[in-house]
Write a structure and sequence with these properties.
Number of strands: 5
Oligomer: single chain
Structural class: alpha+beta
Strand content: 15-25%
Bound molecules: zinc ion
Shape: globular
Radius of gyration: 17 Å
Helix content: 40-55%
CATH class of the largest domain: Mainly Alpha
Largest sheet: 3 strands, mixed
Length: 144
């Protein structure tokens, strides 16, 4: 994702587009399929910005999550991952290789679910669907 576009996203949310914030958002957008952890972000960005601290990453991600431009994924109780893809989708964790996959979900199913529930007293604004299984790559490996 290019820097100008990232700046736009941040400014729209009135987040000051500092170098660190731009870098971290860019990293998440460029690694959308890997759903990185704080450690992964830290290790990879440190090469470009040696002054970066883990605290900065935590604080930046907190700001992003509060502004709903990043989502927290806690499919595994031992690790917290981050996702910039915020449209309706589910996550599948492969129990063999530990990879986390995006799984498409019919958007109508989501909106129907929201509508049904919001008719009652609950006000639902966020949904997480976590699936566990064996990914196609690992399935193909075991077949050989
Ligand atoms: Zn796998
Ligand atoms: Zn995702």
């Amino acid at each position: 994702m290019n820097t100008l576009h990232v700046k736009e996203i941040l400014e729209k949310k009135e987040i000051k587009p500092s170098l660190h914030r731009i870098k971290i958002f860019e990293y998440l957008a460029d690694n959308i399929m890997s759903h990185p952890t704080v450690d992964m972000i830290y290790q990879d960005i440190l090469k470009d910005i040696p002054t970066l601290s883990k605290t900065t990453i935590y604080n930046t991600l907190k700001t992003f999550v509060e502004n709903k431009i990043v989502r927290v994924i806690t499919i595994d109780e031992n690790e917290v991952r981050f996702d910039v893809k915020i449209d309706a989708h589910a996550h599948m964790k492969c129990v063999k290789c530990n990879s986390l996959y995006n799984v498409d979900v019919d958007p109508e199913l989501f909106s129907k679910f929201f509508e049904e529930n919001n008719k009652n007293k609950h006000k639902i604004f966020e949904t997480h669907i976590y699936l566990r299984g064996i990914c196609d790559k690992c399935l193909n490996k075991t077949e050989i």
